[in-house]
């Protein structure tokens, strides 16, 4: 477990809520740290594109969702930049495979399967 410096007052809303939820004001937060479970110091030392270069492709999507949820615009920009670099020079089919994007036919087939299961499923009336 590592301690991260508390975010400054202009940090994203979710992080500010975390700090204020611990009863810290801006001055106290600047002098203290927040414990972050399941993250070691080596992870925190990596930053920016260095961190993203070491990140596995399958984890990038999860990081994008987390950055969006935490409202960390800078991290979200870095993630999008990495995704753009990954996509550069790729054909549409390669992009579908890389980013696991289904085709319209696959979407229609899945939707029909859901409708069929819903229609066939026995109704439970009490």
Mean pLDDT: 76
Shape: flat
Structural class, judged by helices and strands?
mainly alpha
E-strand count? 2
InterPro entries: SKP1 (IPR016897), SKP1-like_dim_sf (IPR036296), SKP1/BTB/POZ_sf (IPR011333), Skp1_comp_dimer (IPR016072)
GO molecular function: cullin family protein binding
GO cellular component, one term: cytoplasm
Pfam family, one: Skp1
Describe the structure.
This protein has 126 residues and is mainly alpha-helical. It has a domain at 1-45. Helices cover 63% and strands 6% of the residues. It contains 8 helices and 2 strands. A two-stranded antiparallel ribbon has the order 1-2.
What is the fold's blueprint, element by element?
Layout: E1 2-5, H1 13-21, H2 26-31, E2 33-36, H3 41-45, H4 48-54, H5 57-69, H6 73-87, H7 92-98, H8 104-120
Antiparallel strand pairs: 1-2
Provide tags for this entry.
mainly alpha, single chain, 126 residues, 6% strand, two-stranded antiparallel sheet
């Amino acid at each position: 477990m590592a301690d991260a410096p508390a975010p400054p007052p202009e940090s994203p809303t979710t992080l500010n809520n975390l700090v204020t939820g611990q009863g810290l004001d801006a001055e106290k937060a600047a002098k203290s740290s927040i414990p972050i479970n399941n993250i070691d110091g080596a992870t925190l030392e990596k930053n920016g594109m260095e961190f993203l270069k070491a990140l596995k492709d399958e984890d990038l999507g999860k990081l994008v969702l987390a950055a969006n949820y935490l409202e960390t615009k800078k991290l979200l920009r870095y993630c999008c930049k990495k995704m753009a670099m990954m996509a550069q020079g790729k054909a549409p089919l390669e992009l579908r495979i890389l980013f696991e994007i289904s085709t319209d036919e696959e979407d229609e087939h899945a939707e029909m399967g859901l409708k069929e299961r819903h229609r066939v499923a026995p109704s439970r009336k009490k």
